[in-house]
Amino acid sequence: MRNIVMLGVQGSGKGTQAEMLAEKFSVSTVSTGRLFRSRIEEGTELGREIAPYVERGDLVPKDIVCRVVADWMDAPSARKGFILDGFPRNVAQAEALTEMLAENGRTLSDVVYIRLSDEEAMRRLSGRRVCANRDCETKFHVDLHPSKRDPNRCDRCGSELVHRSDDRSEAISRRLAIYGSETKPLVEYYRERGLLREVDGEQSIAEVFKSIMEKFRE
């Protein structure tokens, strides 16, 4: 059974790779960002707690994140394996994840780290546009991967493309700073535990996926 965590600075493409790996291994995947947005859009009490952190680009407190992720992992669709994108984001969350899994007799099998420079991350994130349809959320980029039919509409479902508040320069800079201080230490944390599979994120999507599969075969 594959229980995988994806690590990498925002814009590294870990969400895209998570989807590809989920299809390859026939497991479920989700990003904490998607979980947070769904709670915010539903207008739940939990969503109202999350919203200010997301808008500022801050880390959502551990207890809230753990509640959201635990609910998702308890669903039948995640029982056959999962890929987590965006959680854990620091060592405290990693330790909480280990405890959550142990309670159900589960463990992590792999941690995929997609390495990317801050400069490239800024370029990718600032140009990102996302389908506003919550059931689609296909990602585009104004330069690297524009929508073919209409620059303001999703090729997949026709819905409006939006520039999210957390993909604007000020929020991106804040997220990159937080990543450096909070999330990057997870690389060594998981390396020490023999779970880390590190690949170069400044390749094409296909080349990154190939590199990940080669790491798994090792």
UniProtKB/TrEMBL annotation:
Zn(2+) binds at C131, C136, C154, C157. Residues 31-60 are annotated as: NMP. One of its GO terms (cellular component) is cytoplasm. InterPro entries: Adenyl_kin_sub, Adenylat/UMP-CMP_kin, Adenylat_kinase_CS, ADK_active_lid_dom_sf, P-loop_NTPase. It is an enzyme of class 2 (transferase). Its main location: cytoplasm. It is found in: Cytoplasm. It catalyses: AMP + ATP = 2 ADP. It comes from the Bacteria. One of its GO terms (molecular function) is zinc ion binding. ATP binds at G11, S12, G13, K14, G15, T16, R128, Q203. AMP binds at T32, R37, D58, L59, V60, G86, F87, P88, R89, Q93, R164, R175. Keywords: ATP-binding, Cytoplasm, Kinase, Metal-binding, Nucleotide biosynthesis, Nucleotide-binding, Transferase, Zinc. One of its GO terms (biological process) is AMP salvage. Pfam families: ADK. Pathway: Purine metabolism; AMP biosynthesis via salvage pathway; AMP from ADP: step 1/1. Its EC number is 2.7.4.3. Catalyzes the reversible transfer of the terminal phosphate group between ATP and AMP. Plays an important role in cellular energy homeostasis and in adenine nucleotide metabolism. Monomer. Belongs to the adenylate kinase family. Consists of three domains, a large central CORE domain and two small peripheral domains, NMPbind and LID, which undergo movements during catalysis. The LID domain closes over the site of phosphoryl transfer upon ATP binding. Assembling and dissambling the active center during each catalytic cycle provides an effective means to prevent ATP hydrolysis. Some bacteria have evolved a zinc-coordinating structure that stabilizes the LID domain. This is Adenylate kinase. It comes from Candidatus Uhrbacteria bacterium CG_4_10_14_0_8_um_filter_58_22.
